Amino acid sequence: MKGLAATILEAVTAASTVGAADWVTDQIAAELGPGGPALVQRLLEGTRRHAVRREEEMLEVRSYLDALGSAHPMTDATIEWLRTVAAGAPPSAIQNR
Q1: Exposure letters 27-59 (e unless 16+ CB within 10 A, then b)
Q2: Fewer beta carbons under 10 A from the terminal one: N or C of the chain?
Q3: 89: number of CA atoms within 13 Å, CB side?
Q4: Residue 95 pLDDT > 70, yes or no?
């Protein structure tokens, strides 16, 4: 869910730069079914509010994946993104590396 939240917040942040945040939010919510609007709002608000805790949780996930010998590029990207959000930077501050 944290990766989904990252994707949604990134999309809405990008869309807001061209005045399309409401449209993008509605499109994403529609894809998530009847509970979509509430889920999108919860993910958007909760990610900003709980980024520090969520980053810590993802660090634990990465440790577990390391123990399993499993690759974790999406987990790594989510950790980096949450770290940026927790620091107060806009989600758009994450650049392709």
Answers
A1: ebbeeeeeebeebbeebbeebeebbeebbeebe
A2: C
A3: 11
A4: no
Supply the angle between the helices 2-16 and 21-31 in degrees, to the nearest 10: 150
Alpha-carbon distance of 53 to 21, in angstroms, equals: 26
| Token pair for 16 | 């807001």
Give the mean pLDDT of 60-66: 98
Q: Residue length, the chain?
A: 97
Burial track 70-91 (b if 16+ CB lie within 10 A, e otherwise): eebeebeebbebbbbbbeeeeb
Residue 91 banded pLDDT, cuts 50, 70, 90: low
| Residue pLDDT, tens place only, 14-35 | 999 999 999 999 999 999 999 9
